[in-house]
Amino acid sequence: MDSFKDRLNSLAKALGKPVPNESEYIDYKTLRKDYEAKANQEINQLQQQSKRQRIDALHGRSDLNPRWTFNNLIEDSDDVIEAVSIAQSFIAAHEDRAWREAGSHMMIFYGDYGRGKSHIAGAIAHQLIEQFEITVLYRQLSSLLEMRYAAYDFSAQDNIGQKFREANQELLDVDMLILDEVCVNETVLKKNAQSWLGNLLRQRLVNKKNCILITNHSLGDLEHALGRYCFESIKEYDTYKVKFSGPSRRTGLTLDEEDLSPKQQYQPNQVR
């Protein structure tokens, strides 16, 4: 009597189908294992694609300069080397969930213009996005204050009040807030600006959100510029202070010797 396999082969011949060889036969367990492996591989690829899309979206919403990375940073002075070491330790600490949930952390970068403060802050943010998918927002304090003042113009037709409320909520919700140019060209912030910033920092503190503040002031001058209420808010954070004192890394317009000579210079609208 023909076996079941022989009858299948005869049926295949009758239908004009190829008859499988003995070596082509795959048992059910092997076939299922192969299908599961392929399915898991496809799922993993989809997960990686989805993760990359999320990370790219986080980078896009952060408003960070894409060139602010550790790869583009020149470690040419002791202050930058020390700042990078502190930054890497801060990033590595995010591996510890207990540390992340223990409280709010703040880094204060202070020093003169062009020392690399914003660059290193941006590099920290880029790496946190890549490794931990942390939401980041980079803002200049002066721009936020200008928007805040404009929000009180009730005759404005551009819906600035609603825009500021949405922007303010975003400042509260984001995991890492970078405030640059803090009190730039300001000896003392106005009292209502001090109160607003102090309340913002206190609410972020309660919600265990981290911050980086970047300023050209010394710490003493910063306390005076922000006011006691706002500066007391900063003291509540687990704070890391990083001073930048090396040479400026910005290159650009320089004056020639002839430009510095006391000869008569052209003046616009000059009547001869």
Could you characterize the architecture of this molecule?
The protein is α/β, with parallel strands linked by helices and 272 residues long. The chain folds into two domains: 35 residues; 180 residues, 3-Layer(aba) Sandwich (Rossmann fold). The protein is 53% helix and 11% strand. Strands 2-3-4-1-5 form a five-stranded parallel sheet, sandwiched between helices. Helix 3 packs parallel to helix 5, helix 8 packs parallel to helix 10 and helix 9 crosses helix 10. The model has no long low-confidence stretch (mean pLDDT 84).
Give descriptors for this structure.
Rossmann fold; P-loop_NTPase; five-stranded parallel sheet; IstB_ATP-bd; alpha/beta; 11 helices; elongated; 11% strand; 2 domains; DNA replication protein DnaC; 272 residues; ATP binding
Detail the topology: elements first, then pairings.
Blueprint: H1 4-14, H2 28-62, H3 78-93, H4 97-102, E1 105-111, H5 117-132, E2 136-140, H6 141-150, H7 160-173, E3 176-180, H8 191-206, E4 210-215, H9 219-226, H10 228-235, E5 238-244, H11 257-260
What structural category arises from helix and sheet content? alpha/beta
What does the largest sheet look like?
5 strands, parallel
CATH architecture classification of the largest domain:
3-Layer(aba) Sandwich
Instruction: Fill in the CATH topology of the largest domain.
Output: Rossmann fold
Query: CATH H-level name of the largest domain... which superfamily?
Result: P-loop containing nucleotide triphosphate hydrolases
Task: State the shape.
Answer: elongated
CATH class of the largest domain: Alpha Beta
pLDDT < 50 runs, ≥5 residues: none
Q: What share of the residues lie within helices?
A: 40-55%
Q: Mean pLDDT, as a whole number? A: 84
Count of DSSP H/I helices: 11
Total DSSP E strands: 5
Gap between N and C termini: 122 Å
Strand order of the largest sheet: 2-3-4-1-5
Total of domains: 2
Our Rg estimate from Cα atoms comes to 30 Å
Q: N-to-C SSE series?
A: HHHHEHEHHEHEHHEH
